[in-house]
């Protein structure tokens, strides 16, 4: 994966489980990180990195905040080689209890933020650049009490296919759809529900963030240079 050396990688949701694993994996390739999350920086984690990094604490579902961040980033980096939108919000709310405000918040974070990032950095995308959108198994098969989340992730899949056509040949656009991954996002699920879903998974276990990170790394690298508009399922066989 030497094709990643010295590349500028923008990652949102940077302190979440999948993003952290991706950062640690890519850190082996001497890249330049632009890291974004809505929480304060984890100084110990960031200082452990060998690669250079910038950290921005902001809400990526705010278009104006993303534009301001872009302006700061482009003072340091003339172009962006890869965008990975890993920020997300997953909450268990049945439709009868799902408020209009919560619906809009989940759509904004899980879908609109992708658009804000890509739109803002469009002119800065490098030749042979790559965008990796994080979708979900929920975007393919639906999910009870996760209507807004599943709807947004279905939108991410459509966004991926549309932009793969529109941004070619300069930029490849792909998606990864994780299944049950052992991150903080999943820990909000009841033990009974989680056990039931693990039992339904042919591999009979939760996935690990590192297993998603490997696929993201592949899609960002030139090892996937003839792949665009695709979605890769990483779910232990739960959805095929």
TrEMBL record:
One of its GO terms (biological process) is fatty acid biosynthetic process. It comes from Acinetobacter chinensis. The keyword Oxidoreductase applies. GO terms for molecular function: oxidoreductase activity, acting on the CH-OH group of donors, NAD or NADP as acceptor; quinone binding. The lineage of its organism: Bacteria, Pseudomonadati, Pseudomonadota, Gammaproteobacteria, Moraxellales. Keywords: Oxidoreductase. It comes from the Bacteria. It holds the Pfam family adh_short_C2. This is SDR family oxidoreductase. Belongs to the short-chain dehydrogenases/reductases (SDR) family. InterPro entries: NAD(P)-bd_dom_sf, Sc_DH/Rdtase_CS, SDR_fam. PANTHER family: 3-OXOACYL-[ACYL-CARRIER-PROTEIN] REDUCTASE (PTHR42760:SF133), SHORT-CHAIN DEHYDROGENASES/REDUCTASES FAMILY MEMBER (PTHR42760). The keyword Hydrolase does not apply.
């Amino acid at each position: 994966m030497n094709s990643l050396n010295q590349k500028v990688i923008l990652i949102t949701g940077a302190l979440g489980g999948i993003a952290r694993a991706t950062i640690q994996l890519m850190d082996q390739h001497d890249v330049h990180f632009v890291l974004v999350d809505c929480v304060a920086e984890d100084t110990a984690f960031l200082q452990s990195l060998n690669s250079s990094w910038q950290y921005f604490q902001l809400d990526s579902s705010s278009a104006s905040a993303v534009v301001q961040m872009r302006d700061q980033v482009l003072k340091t980096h003339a172009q962006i080689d890869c965008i990975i939108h890993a920020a997300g919000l997953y909450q268990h709310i049945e439709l009868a209890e799902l408020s209009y405000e919560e619906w809009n918040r989940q759509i904004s974070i899980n879908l609109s933020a992708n658009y804000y990032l890509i739109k803002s950095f469009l002119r800065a995308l490098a030749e042979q650049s790559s965008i990796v959108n994080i979708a979900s198994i929920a975007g393919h098969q639906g999910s009870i009490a996760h209507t807004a989340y599943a709807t947004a992730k279905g939108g991410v899949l459509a966004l991926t296919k549309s932009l793969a056509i529109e941004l070619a040949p300069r930029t490849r656009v792909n998606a990864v759809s994780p299944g049950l991954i052992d991150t903080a996002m999943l820990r909000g699920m009841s033990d009974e529900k989680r056990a039931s879903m693990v039992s339904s998974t042919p591999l009979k276990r939760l996935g690990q963030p590192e297993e998603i990170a490997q696929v993201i790394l592949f899609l960002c690298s030139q090892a996937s240079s003839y792949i665009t508009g695709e979605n890769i399922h990483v779910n232990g066989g739960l959805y095929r």
